[in-house]
Amino acid sequence: MKPARLLPAFAALAALAATMPSSAAEAGAARRPTVNIVIAHKAAASTDLVLPAGLQAFQEALIYARTTGYLSKWLVDIGDEVKAGQVLAVIDSPEVDQQLLVAQAALLQAQANATLARATATRWEALGAQNAVSHQETDEKNAAAAASEANVQAATAEVARLTQLKGFETVTAPFAGVIAARGADIGTLITTDTNRPLLFRLTQQSVLRVYAGIPQAYMRAVSPGLAVDVLASEFPDRAFKGRIARVAGALDAASRTLQVEVQIPNENGELLPGMFVQLRFKLVSPQPPLLVPSNATIIRPDGNYVAVVDAQDKVRLQKVAFGRDYGTQIEITGGLAENAQVVANPSDALVDGQAVEPLRPDTKK
After folding, report:
1. Which of 286, 331, 318, 342 is closest to 43 using CA atoms?
2. Residue where one domain finishes, among candidates 284, 305, 340
């Protein structure tokens, strides 16, 4: 073959060599997979936690009768505001009235017997001092006087019991509030057994209370006195103000939540017990957790991981602890440093120590 004919072949080989990597390092770089990088950052220190809840009256009393009879009249009805000690209803109890009269007569009889027994015992004491009667007879008279005194005490207690029962004929309000229910009409037989009818349900609504379960992740951010917004759909443009009054000292083992009691002033009566509301807590976390995209997590049988790119552009599988899942983002509560370079949507082919070509946020176009 003539040299002139070899020149085009050598030129083609030279062009191919020019397109190949110039060194082994460049060849290795060409084999590195490209990964998208996200920076692990702290969540906002202040966050809103919205929980559903139901309003309750600050105080609520189911009022039943303590005596037997017939309801003769009721003086209040549903929706009426009452004061503490106000008469709500009157019960007619003729049997209790008769029993009281009998007990009062028995008391008088016992007192008379006791007076006679004391006088007799005094005389026998004087006769005994003169040896006119035996000591046995004197002791018997003294014992009879003591028994008569005991009978007086028993009769007195019975009169007091029946007097108290007669006092229960007048049903009064234990505290100021609103009548929320009435369960008996005039003429209803009132009993004190387990089947007794409900007379009234009294609620105190000037202050309402509501209970909520705070998730364990936020338990350090709640304390008594924390302001809470109470949102009701009936008042779309208004947030009622409340405060945490009490915080439970332990978490509920079943739900892992911390119960808190929120009290809401309700002097105008705009809110009613039983309403469904939402509680908005403005929580400030002393140590905000880190946030990474949910698609950056790797879940394996031995734990949860994220792929971190180090300063040498090598992948390190870092075991982490998850916090709250927000859907597109997830909290990392342990195992990851702030500003770590985390691989977004890592491939299953990535292995620990593998060199990669990171595509960082500042280099993306």
Report:
1. 331
2. 284
